[in-house]
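Memo to structure team: turn this sequence into structure tokens by end of day. - J.P.
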Amino acid sequence: QVQLVESGGGLVQAGGSLRLSCAASGRTFSGYAVGWFRQAPGKEREFVSAITQSGHITDYADSVKGRFTISRDNGKNTVYLQMNSLKPEDTAIYYCAAAAYYGTLMRRGDYWGQGTQVTVSS
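Reply from structure team:
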């Protein structure tokens, strides 16, 4: 199994940037697809971005396309989410998730971190 810990959240003004990190331990990290999801109060969890095991394919929600970039460093067992041009509607708890299969990740994920709060002020 794999354990995930998110970090890097905080308070930022609209137009600012944050970089989230998802650090993994346990089973070899390179064997998992990893994604970022977010959930705001009163809303359903939504997909943000995902990256395949090798890192050569990435996906983004339309709402963040062109502003967020996902990457991974398998040598450091870490996945990053660089968030630029942040908007108040990006405010949410951000979670990373991992799964052995990309489809499983998109449906529900196998493993989840504890989440990190991102707050964007206007």
